[in-house]
Amino acid sequence: MAVREKYFDINEEGNSVRCRILSASPLRTFERVVICTHGFGSSKDVANITRFAQKYLDKHGKDAVLGFDWPCHGKDGRKKLEISDCMEYMKLVVNYVRETLGAKKIFNYSVSFGGYLTLLYMHRAGNPFAKVALRAPGLRMHDLMLKNVKETDREKLAKGREVEIGYERKMKADHTLFDALAAGDVRKYEYFDWADSMLIIHGTADEMVPMEDSIQFCEDNVIEFVPVEGADHPFRNPKLMDSAIHTVVEFFGES
User: Fold this and answer.
1) pLDDT digit string, tens, across residues 96-112
2) Smallest Cα–Cα separation from 185: which of 96, 132, 120?
3) Residue 32: which domain range?
C-alpha cells in the first residue's frame, strides 16, 4: 500500500512543533492516530518510524501515524533542552490529533527517551492514549543521560554552567535539565490504572538501557513485557525490528 507523507508545523503558544504525518488515504481526519516518538539524538524521520508506519498502515489503511521532533532534535528550532518544553510539545501534539485530525482513539508508540517522556507525560497530565507500546524506555533517564556527560562537563554543571550534549546535533543543557530528570523518576510512579492498555518491548542484547529496568517496571505495574532475543538498543537487525513492529501493530489492532 502506498504511504503518503506530509510535513507541517504546529505553531501555538510560542512553540513550533515540527511534525510528519503518514497515511494511506487522502483523508484529512482520522478516527485512529498513532503518535510515534523517537529516542534521544534522533528525529521524526528515523527509519523505525517509517517502517512502523508502512507496516501499520498496511493493516489499518484508514488510520494515520504522526511523528514529531522533540525540542532540540531534528528540525526543531530550540537550542537548550528542557523537560518542560518536551511536556508542552506532547500536549500540543495530542491536542492537534484530537481537535484537528478528529481522532477518537490515540495510540502511542515510543522509543527510549521518547518512552520516558511518554510515561512522564502520562503521570503529569493523565493518559490520553487508548494503548501505549514502549520499546526500551529510558526509565532511569537521569542516570543514562548523565553517564554520557564528560567529567569536565559535570564540573561545569555543578557550577551552574551550560554544557553541550547530544550526538550529531549538539544541544545546550544545564543543571535544571538533570534536576528535572532526577525529580521525574518514572519508576517511582504508579501506572496500574493503565496497565491493561500498555506493552513494553526490550531487546535482550541492549547494552545502553538495562532490560532489567523494564522487567522490574512491568512487574511493579503489572504491564505485559515482551523480550526480543538478540536485539540491541536500536534494533539494528531488520528481522528483529520487524518482529517488534509486528507485536505493536497486533497490540494496537486489538482495540
Assistant:
1) 999 999 999 999 999 99
2) 120
3) 4-140+189-253
